[in-house]
Amino acid sequence: HEDLTNEYFGSLHSWMCNCDRPSCHRCDLTFSCNCSHAQFIVVPMVTDDALTLDLSFNNIVMVTDDDLKGHARLRVLSLHANRLSEIHSSAFASLWSLEELDLSDNEIKIINHKWFRKLGALQRLNLLHNPYSLGPHPLFKSLVQLRRLSFGSDALEEIGRAHVSGIDQLEELRVHGDNLRRYEPGALADIWPLGHVYLSLHGPFLNNQSLASAMLGDVSYPETWVILENLHLATSQSLQPFREAAKKRIRYLSLHNVSISDQRVVEFLVVTDGVPLTFLKFDGVTLKGEGRWEKAYQTDHKALDEVYLRNVIVLDVYKFVSFLQLGFLLQYPRKVSVINAGVFVMPCATSYLLVNLQYLDLSDNLLTDLTLQETLCNGRGTLKDLRVLNISGNALKSLSTVSQLVTKLSKLTHLDISRNGYSWMPQSCPWPPTLRYLNISQAKLNTVTPCLPVTLQVLDLSNNNLNSFLLVLPALTELYLSGNKFLMLPLGWMFPNLQILNIQSNTLTMFSLSDLASYSRLKDLQAGQNKFDCNCDFVNFFQSDIQRRKVMHLSDGEDTYLCDSPLYLQGRAVGRVWLSIVDCHRVLFVSVSCGLALIVGVMVCILLWRLHAFWYLKMMWAWLKAKRGSQRRRRIRHETEPLLSFDAFISYSERDASWVENFLVPELEEPRNTNEGDMDSTPLQSLSLCLHKRDFLPGQWIVDNIISAIERSRRTVFILSENFLQSDWCRYELDFSHFQLFDGHTDRDAVILILLEPLSRDDIPKRFCKLRKLMGSTTYLEWPQDDDRRAEFWNNLRKALRTVEDET
After folding, report:
1. Does the domain spanning 648-670+685-801 belong to CATH 3.30.540.10?
2. Where are the transmembrane segments (predicted)?
3. Could you tell me which of 353, 351, 359 has the C-alpha nearest to residue 335?
4. What is the DSSP letter of 505?
């Protein structure tokens, strides 16, 4: 059969090699890969560095010999809840480091001992709930490090010595044998020491008490915790297996999911009479009957130290007499827990019977303020040795009533009154002076008052509606405030001895080094899951002081500290946020930017001033404005060409006006013939000149006058001198003339330059770029200082002016 199986796997593996195996990339930084609930039908490929691989809740039907190769570092493998039915004999051969293997809840029909040959490091093995039967070979002999073993199912019918041989000791053994039919006596007896054993033996306890007795006897030791599950103790015969456990002097017994009557309880007490049973637990019990316990009155259970009852349903509860007849039993336990049992009152008479009680847990019941008074006998001195009282999850509403009732409990140190309906806290409350631990979490408190005792060392006010805490508690070492509405950390000076502060899931936006410095002894802060504002101060403090300098230990993990604002950082861990200088120093950044912009602006302005850019812009604007005015005038006159009224427009500096008036104007407008005796000489023609002093229209913008004069003159004559170069209006006239040249309304030879004093192109400042350009491309006349050459000068000037006149 094995050869056929391996041949089947070989062909199957060959087929799978031709197919692409899926991959799983859901691995965290600790190399824990969670590939559960992913609908895989074959084992996916994961990184070879994986330490934990969870493949539970998929549809994997087989594991081949190559699926897990290369995973020598793997320590935990879970194939729980698949459809696994076939596993190659060498499937786990490469998993030398595997410590935990879970194959539960599958469809495995055959357990092959070869699976475990190479698993020498395996410590935990779970084979529960598979339809297999144990084979003839020792299954677990090679698992020398095995400490926890779980096997069995509804299909398991036999357990023999060979099946479990080789197992020397276990911390935990779980056997599911509800339908077990054959058990070889002593099969489990060699497992020693045995810490905890869980036996589910519903069928044997009902129908095969000898099998259940043999099995229970093999695992019952004074030091072993025996947990029996799924029992229906309806008859006297169903209690026979406990006799074997009683013979072994069993000390720890738990019954889970059990149905029992008061008569069977009496018989159980009789069976265990004199047995040093110290711990008795019933979890998930259905109790029938009327509460008749008389027959057990003479039994001896002085060793009973702790009784634990949880999830109890009492059928016909109103027929039950009481538990007073169990007074012989109630006087011994030091710890009693009755949890979620529908208890609405424990009579004061019952409380008086609990003379040795130090621990009482009545949580998740139906106690009210009124019935609690009956339970605690109105504070009349019962339960004098009680140190721990848990009445959480009831229907209590008055904190004042509770404090008054527990005041007489002179040894009380721990009080849990959480998950009740307290809506307010009185200003003062009496408490026992020994009280050190108080839990009022999950109530409806809005404020904290001096009602709280100053003797507290541990205080839990989680999940209330608190937004402030202004109470000095000098002895407090642990404070739990999670799930409230705090906007900031409480003032640390009020808790000089505080070492642990839990303020998770509030509305904290930030905290600082100064906040933490007020806590002189704080060692552990848990402040994650708040609405942190990731501003520069908080992020810098968190990353520098918390992460790098470790000024405070965050036991809840740095990844729980997430940004809530600004919106673009929402959900990101504070420790991994990066903020730019713009975010962190916005005022400084704006100030520096504005300063730099101002400096650059000033430098640009200086540069533009040096380059006379403002002048050009001003001139351009003026020229465009004047140009539009000139065009508008021409449209009114229906003229397409400018009206020429002058032969020349004279542009000169006011300081050169004497030369213009004394030399230029008389020579050109009032010419005299130098050869008066020569009858044949041609008289000189008079020219019309445009001078700004006499020809500019008063009241009109001077720029319009300049533009109009240039447009109405055939020529523009520039009288160049140092004075000209220093005159702004001369620059206007020069630039407007230059614009006219390129505008097409003036001939390019219509500009005449006259130098009154020697000027070279290089002597002219660079800001006179137009003039420098004209002197480089236009012939100019120089005013001679020698009188003999002046006649030639005037002839050349008239010739230039006549050239234009002739052309026109």
Report:
1. no
2. 587-609
3. 359
4. S
